[in-house]
Amino acid sequence: MTGTPPAVTVSLLTRMLREAFSGPPGPWTYFTDTSPGTGVFGTISRLSAAAASLEGGPGNTTVAGHVHHLTSSLALATLGLRGQPTSRDRSRSWTVSRVDETGWADLQARLRREYESLLVAVETHAVWDEDALGVAIGAIAHAAYHLGAIRQRLAPRDAEALP
After folding, report:
1. How many domains in the chain?
2. Which of 40, 59, 96, 121 is the most exposed place for a label (fewest CB within 10 A)?
3. Per-residue confidence of the chain (163 residues) as pLDDT tens digits?
4. What are the beta bridge partners of residue 61?
């Protein structure tokens, strides 16, 4: 019995990361719907800073808070894949809840940079052992969770805007 070739592992991991952040790459998906703009970037790009700062859902969090938390999480996953120590303390990743337009643009740019850094870390990772797979799969699952939380939070607003 042989293991999965590293190229297949990398291809699957990067495809799922891209789906979570950029949306579905084709006519089918692993976990999002097939509509354009269903990834994190498409979902948050149409939000103003004021909309991203509205509290709602469990814990009265904001979309900006989820994005900041997700940005921090991606940075930790990248460190983990690079073999650097990471902290399990995630309390500082929820310190942002409200943003102005400049802060919102900066936060979205930071999220994109951390996403791109994680993609590079996945694409260049040499040995896919249990720890490395756990970090990468955990990052995908975590991103999918927060994508769902953000989209669910926006669903009532979108419904209210309909005629």
Report:
1. 1
2. 59
3. 356 778 889 999 999 999 999 998 888 889 888 888 899 999 999 999 999 999 987 788 999 999 999 999 999 999 999 998 887 766 778 888 899 999 999 999 999 999 999 999 999 998 899 999 999 999 999 999 999 999 988 866 554 443 3
4. 56
Closest CA to 74 of 26, 105, 37, 41: 41
The two tokens of residue 98 are 């409200």
Inside any domain, residue 1: no
Kindly tell me the sign of the dihedral angle through the C-alpha atoms of 119, 31, 87, 95. Answer: positive
> 21, 26, 24, 14: which is closest to 41 by C-alpha?
21
What's the burial of 35, exposed, middle or buried (CB within 10 Å: 0-12/13-18/19+)? exposed
